[in-house]
Specification:
By secondary structure, this protein is an alpha/beta fold. The chain is built from 6 helices and 4 strands, in the order ααβαββαααβ. It has helices spanning 4-7, 10-23, 43-53, 82-85, 94-105, 109-125; strands spanning 30-36, 64-70, 75-80, 143-144.
Length: 145
């Protein structure tokens, strides 16, 4: 398991994209997944970099969330934009991360990502409920580095 392309099958990727669509029916928050081979820096720092590279601050409520995975480095992180951080505690993503880590440990990456995405949607629902006039502000497609 070293190449990004081997990490998920095309079918699994589509299931993940569908999970993002489902999660975004709970919240106005926008969730994206970025997968790359490795990183030499802390996963959370790299997540912030990628967040900026993907212009994920382009949401009206500043409520974009990135789920970042470095496959070969065995690292992942979740980072939410400032609109979220202004409203929640520092441990806000801990239970989402725990849900993912349990699957990742067993090599079940698809399920880890799906559970993480759906969990994130549930978490965000309380602070950023789904709006009837919702638009898909950030694409649900997986980003790969
Ligand atoms: Ca939306
Ligand atoms: Ca979206």
């Amino acid at each position: 398991m070293s190449k990004v392309e081997d990490f998920l099958t095309a079918e699994e990727e589509q299931e993940i994209v569908a999970a993002i669509g489902k999660a975004e029916k709970n919240t106005s928050g926008e969730i994206r997944v970025h997968i790359e081979k490795e990183t030499s820096i802390a996963a959370i720092d790299r997540a912030v970099e990628v967040f900026q590279q993907l212009n994920m601050e382009n949401t009206q409520e500043r409520n974009g969330v990135i789920i970042y995975v470095a496959v070969k480095s065995h690292k992942f992180a979740i980072y939410g934009d400032k609109g979220i951080n202004e409203k929640v505690n520092d441990d806000f993503w801990n239970c989402t991360k725990d849900a993912m880590a349990n699957h990742f440990k067993e090599g079940n990456f698809k399920q880890g990502l799906i559970d993480g995405i759906l969990h994130a949607g549930e978490q965000l629902k309380k602070y950023f409920p789904y709006q009837d006039n919702d638009t898909d502000e950030l694409t649900n497609e997986i980003s790969k580095g």
